[in-house]
Design a protein that fits this description.
The chain is of the alpha/beta class and 327 residues long. It has one domain: NADP-dependent oxidoreductase domain (TIM Barrel, Alpha-Beta Barrel). The protein is built from 9 helices and 13 strands. It has helices at 31-40, 59-71, 98-112, 131-143, 157-164, 187-193, 235-254, 258-267, 298-311, and strands at residues 3-6, 9-12, 14-17, 48-50, 78-83, 85-88, 91-94, 119-122, 150-153, 171-175, 197-201, 274-278, 324-325. β4, α2 and β5 form a beta-alpha-beta unit. The longest helix is centred in the last third of the chain and has 20 residues, at 235-254. 46% of the residues are buried.
């Protein structure tokens, strides 16, 4: 396992993403499997576990709390959670009202059964109030020692700059993979220049880069990919063609599969600190071991760019995930 330093803490460069463990957007997952997955991370050198209240409406945090108690050593886990998303019958909304942030924090601690959070992140920027107000709240938690690092997620360079005018900013969690690279233009360079760690989510593009999907794949009711434009015709066929070619490249040049190639690509991008890896069962972590011990050089990066560019003629980003603006 490779590691990086996040505000003096040693953190694994692969982290377990627990959106799927919440069980509400990626199909059902049993509590036993979910807890076992959280505990299996240590077999692969992982200590970073990323979660959020909205993942299963609190269930993912509760699962992690149970896993930590079963393990018995809270300090072995580097837990990153979030705040700033509200959900109700009308949908999901960004909400960083200070009163709500403080309540969310207490609720997260209760579900986790913890006295502190290693990394606390604003999940999405709330454009209805100044960014600085959310920064003030997290700065308070930080000074009290209740959080060990301050982070944001899905923040632009301008929003990060405003946040930093009030509080230290240690990380930004962003969507990034071989197919979704919007942060290359401004956000990633901003983070790199200011030593802000970048944690990438959708590192395998909602399993598209895992290499297991076919044109006949059907997603169950409630699966987030049913509304993801990448998984709808005609785009789905384009992305699958790219995956097939990427897999062939990985096999020919490295003796690897596309899944390992896609994760290695993220980790080898300048400025990226860690990539999140979604899993619902322990065996889904096994491929992590094949990510390390090799690198992609500039020639390989250029070849992968060409494969994606030629196969995907109608690309689309992850914009569909953006929450609504609250009234």
């Amino acid at each position: 396992m490779e590691h990086f330093t996040l505000n003096s803490s040693k953190v694994s460069r692969i982290g377990l993403g627990t959106w799927a463990i919440g069980g509400s957007e990626w199909g059902e997952v049993s509590e036993g499997d979910a807890i076992a997955t959280c505990l299996a991370v240590f077999e692969h050198g992982i200590n970073l576990i990323d979660t959020a209240p909205i993942y299963g409406h609190g269930r993912a945090e509760e699962i992690i709390g149970k896993a930590m108690r079963q393990h018995g050593h809270r300090e072995s886990f580097y837990v990153a959670t979030k705040a700033g998303l509200e959900w109700n019958d009308r949908g999901v909304f960004a909400n960083s009202d200070p009163v709500r942030l403080r309540q969310e924090f207490e609720d997260s601690l209760r579900r986790l059964g913890a006295e502190y959070v290693d990394l606390y992140q604003i999940h999405w920027p709330d454009t209805t109030i100044p960014v600085e107000r959310a920064a003030e709240v997290l700065l308070g938690f930080y000074r009290e020692g209740r959080i060990r690092a301050i982070g944001v997620s899905n923040f632009s360079a301008g929003q990060m700059k405003a946040f930093q005018s009030v509080a230290p900013l240690h990380s930004n969690q962003l969507p990034y993979n071989l197919f979704e690279r919007a942060i290359d233009d401004e956000t990633l360079p901003f983070c790199r220049d200011r030593s802000i760690a970048v944690l990438t989510y959708s590192s395998l593009c909602r399993s598209l880069l895992a290499g297991r999907l076919t044109r006949g794949t059907k997603f169950p009711k409630g699966d987030i990919r049913r509304v993801d434009p990448k998984f709808q015709p005609p785009r789905f066929a384009q992305y699958l063609e790219a995956v097939t070619k990427l897999d062939a490249f990985a096999s020919e040049h490295y003796g690897k599969h596309v899944l390992e190639l896609a994760a290695r690509w993220v980790l080898d991008r300048p400025g990226v600190s860690a990539a999140l890896w979604g899993a619902k069962r322990p065996e889904q972590l096994n491929a992590v071991d094949g990510i390390f011990g090799w690198k992609l050089d500039d020639a390989a990066m250029a070849a992968l760019d060409a494969i994606v560019r030629e196969a995907v003629t109608d690309p689309v980003g992850p914009e569909y995930l953006t929450p609504a603006v609250r009234f």
